[in-house]
Amino acid sequence: MGPLLEVKGLSKVFTLGSFLSRVRIKAVDEVTFSIQSAEIFTLAGESGCGKTTTARMILGFETPTSGKILFRGEDVEGFRNRRKWFLQVQAVFQNPFETFNPLRRVESYFFETVHNFDLAATPPEAYSLIDEKLKAVGLSLQEISGKYPSEFSGGQLQRASIARALLANPSLLIADEPVSMVDASLRMSIVNLFRKLCDNFGVSVLYITHDLATAYYISDRIGIMFRGNLVEMGPTEKVLGDPKHPYTKLLLNSIPQPDPRMRYRTTIQLLEEQEEYLLEGCKFANRCPEKGKLCSEEMPAETFVDGRMVRCHLYGPDGDNLPERQGIKRR
């Protein structure tokens, strides 16, 4: 059986500035990955790395400049009938308080979704379906009936958002920073819910986050993005347990450690975000403590090292021409 979702060479170019000083920014640069059935795949990276733009192209909210998106082997352009597509793919967004209109009762969204997708033939069937999905996330129709968004906690409202997404029995959930607006004490309950949906109901999840702790906890595989490029991708335990790309190492070492000696010691001169996107070679070269001359001149190709993909000259055919530096593990 093939992948549920395949993204092949996906790119998105935005044009910024006036007519006389236009700049083309490649927000997503030939990104390729796949998601299997009943798998949680994470796109991780700092803000502005292109992970949300990638998700928006999959959902159809942005039109790709180039590349293909395949769902069960079929080009998603064939799914651009919105009703057909959103029966298969649903989204959960960052801020649940923006998902629901504060002037509408929360249950109205559920009945509206059931009606729009013809998910029930009679009112009793609609009530039963809604209650079933709410109970799957630890709520019930009785608990939410008659209440407005302001009467729920952030965690409850995010659970309701997930339950609404489950009404159509989608094969894929795209969760864009789903716990970043939720109290720290409630984050793991939401994260565990995604794991439960994957393990018990066979739902695949594209989990988008900058939080490597939750990514490590629930992901089967992970892709690390920087300035539109996937720089490292593979099984989560390998990528986050023994990172190869200098950017992945920097991300991991930016997490506070109980041992002050466990730090990524480097001095870097930061560029503006736009300037990094416009770099000719590796977009991370300006920050990288392991860079050589080639890094600023040529974009590294995808190389497969120890069961994961790494886009770094250190592991490519020209790696031996770069100076050896402390801490780099060779192939």
* CATH-level-4 superfamily name of the largest domain: P-loop containing nucleotide triphosphate hydrolases
User: How many strand segments?
Assistant: 12
Structural class, from helix and strand content?
Answer: alpha/beta
Largest sheet: 8 strands, mixed
Q: Segments where pLDDT lies below 50 for 5+ residues?
A: 262-270, 323-331
- Roughly what is the average pLDDT, rounded to an integer? 86
> What is the CATH topology classification name of the largest domain?
Rossmann fold
Cα distance, first to last residue? 32 Å
Strand order of the largest sheet: 6-7-8-3-9-10-12-11
Which H/E pattern describes the elements? EEEHEEHEHHHHHEHEHEEHHHEE
**Broad shape:** globular
Count of separate structural domains:
2
Classify the beta-strand content into a percent band.
15-25%
Report the total helices: 12
Question: In the CATH classification, which architecture of the largest domain applies?
Answer: 3-Layer(aba) Sandwich
Percent of residues in helices: 25-40%
- Indicate the CATH class of the largest domain: Alpha Beta
Radius of gyration: 21 Å
Summarize the structure in words.
The structure is a single chain. Helix content is 32%, strand content 22%. With 331 residues, it is an alpha/beta fold. It has 2 domains: 35-63 and 75-241, P-loop containing nucleotide triphosphate hydrolases (Rossmann fold); 243-331, no CATH class. The strands form 2 sheets. Strands 6-7-8-3-9-10-12-11 form an 8-stranded mixed beta sheet, sandwiched between helices. A hairpin with a 2-residue loop joins strand 11 and strand 12. Helix 5 (123-136) crosses helix 7. Residues 262-270 and 323-331 have low confidence and may be disordered. GO terms for molecular function: ATP binding. This is ABC transporter ATP-binding protein. Keywords: ATP-binding, Nucleotide-binding, Transport.
